[in-house]
């Protein structure tokens, strides 16, 4: 059931109306919300301390370890809400046993120096308390910073819809003290100023990122559903947009990217719909004419740069037609990104 940002806000508003009808004060409500948020952050913090603090430091010799953080948020989707259900499906596919735990170049995923997991931000539980999007986005940012507090953890975020990239990139940039270069693989530029009245829409995340000054360079690869506004916004923010119609010409450049020098590193955001739907049918926006899976891996594996964080978003399990195939695709993206991040 597609419930847009407006409907979600209305749900929160109704809940608050019921509370005020029951004469519960705003202060009491806010105190309750803060308790739930604090508890959520505490759980992530303690998991990160346990998994890294203790374990990785004892093992030694690790500079960076990819750490999964799930953000099961779907309500900022303009069409379907299914991406909220993606994180557990991706985890299940990573460890399902149909394949071994080696990445292509030979790193072992079951080595915590390569990959750890601190669980999910409990998005639905927080929203059920009537917390609005503005504050929810801050909770996502705080969760990411909590992971980064534990050196050498680097967040690899499982979405969710693409609206989550804004609070994640904001947190990474603020925590590192400067902008990053972003490699953004997607069928869509997600750079509308505001989509259907929602500034936090999954179609607007990169407009918020660029306005905030969190990125020096933004490279968008795989585009094939882009409007006049998408191109104009791209020009306005100096985005390097690579459209699929010229991919055969751009391929060599994109398979030999060098990013992140002179800034705080590289952030990689992979929207599963960057892939042709033949490879990944389980997405909300089926857009034929996309990248092959090997195209994406060539771009990611050959990328030169210090990948400080990343996300894999917009997998929609409710549309995954072929026995969890897209879940395996998302999982393999996560596996190869883990190899890229860890060192």
Q: Major sheet, described briefly?
A: 8 strands, parallel
Can you list the strand order of the major beta sheet? Answer: 2-1-3-8-7-4-5-6
**CATH class assignment:** Alpha Beta
Helical residue percent?
40-55%
Give the name of the CATH superfamily.
Ureohydrolase domain
CATH fold naming: Arginase, Chain A
How large a portion of the residues is in β-strands, by DSSP E? Answer: 15-25%
So what's the overall shape? Answer: globular
Q: Helical segment tally?
A: 11
Name of the CATH architecture: 3-Layer(aba) Sandwich
Mean pLDDT: 94
Low-confidence region ranges:
none
Number of domains: 1
What string, H for helix and E for strand, traces the elements in order? HHEHEHHEHEHEHEHEHEH
* C-alpha-based Rg, rounded: 19 Å
EC number: 3.5.3.1
Function: Catalyzes the hydrolysis of L-arginine to urea and L-ornithine. The latter can be utilized in the urea cycle or as a precursor for the synthesis of both polyamines and proline.
Binding site for Mn(2+): 162, 186, 188, 190, 271, 273
Protein name: Arginase 1, mitochondrial
Characterization of this structure:
Its cofactor is Mn(2+). Mn(2+) binds at residues 162, 186, 188, 190, 271, 273. Catalyzes the hydrolysis of L-arginine to urea and L-ornithine. The latter can be utilized in the urea cycle or as a precursor for the synthesis of both polyamines and proline. The structure is a single chain. This protein has a single domain, classed as Arginase, Chain A, CATH 3.40.800. Helices cover 43% and strands 15% of the residues. The chain has helices spanning 5-21, 26-59, 86-94, 123-127, 133-149, 165-176, 205-211, 228-237, 247-254, 293-302, 325-341; strands at residues 65-71, 115-120, 153-159, 180-185, 215-223, 240-243, 266-271, 307-313. Strands 2-1-3-8-7-4-5-6 form an eight-stranded parallel sheet, with helices on both faces. Helix 5 (133-149) crosses helix 6. The protein is globular, with a radius of gyration of 19 Å. The relative contact order is 0.15.
């Amino acid at each position: 059931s597609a419930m847009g940002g407006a409907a979600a806000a209305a749900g929160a508003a109704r809940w608050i109306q019921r509370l005020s009808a029951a004469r519960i004060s705003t202060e009491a409500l806010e105190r309750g919300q803060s308790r739930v948020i604090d508890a959520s952050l505490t759980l992530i913090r303690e998991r990160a301390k346990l998994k890294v603090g203790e374990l990785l430091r004892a093992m030694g010799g690790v500079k960076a370890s990819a750490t999964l953080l799930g953000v099961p948020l779907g309500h900022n989707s303009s069409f379907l809400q299914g991406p909220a259900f993606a994180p557990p499906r991706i985890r299940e596919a990573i460890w399902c046993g149909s394949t071994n735990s080696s990445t292509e170049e030979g790193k072992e995923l079951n080595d915590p120096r390569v990959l750890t997991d601190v669980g999910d931000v409990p998005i639905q539980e927080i929203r059920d308390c009537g917390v609005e999007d503005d504050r929810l986005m801050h909770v996502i940012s705080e969760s990411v910073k909590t992971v980064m507090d534990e050196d050498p953890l680097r967040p690899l975020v499982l979405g969710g819809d693409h609206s989550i990239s804004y609070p994640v990139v904001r947190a990474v940039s603020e925590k590192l003290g400067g902008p990053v270069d972003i490699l953004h693989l997607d069928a869509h530029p997600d750079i509308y100023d505001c989509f259907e009245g929602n500034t936090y829409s999954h179609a607007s995340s990169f407009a918020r990122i660029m306005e905030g000054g969190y990125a020096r360079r933004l490279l968008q690869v795989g585009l094939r559903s882009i409007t006049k506004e998408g191109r104009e916004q791209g020009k306005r923010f100096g985005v390097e947009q690579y459209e699929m119609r010229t991919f055969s010409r751009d391929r060599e450049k994109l398979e030999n990217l060098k990013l992140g020098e002179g800034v705080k590193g590289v952030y990689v955001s992979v929207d599963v719909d960057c892939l042709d739907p033949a490879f990944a049918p389980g997405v909300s926006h089926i857009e034929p004419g996309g990248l092959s899976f090997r195209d994406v891996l060539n771009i990611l594996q050959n990328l030169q740069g210090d990948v400080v964080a990343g996300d894999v978003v917009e997998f929609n399990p409710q549309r995954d037609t072929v026995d969890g195939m897209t879940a395996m695709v998302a999982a393999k993206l996560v596996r190869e990104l883990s190899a890229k991040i860890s060192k």
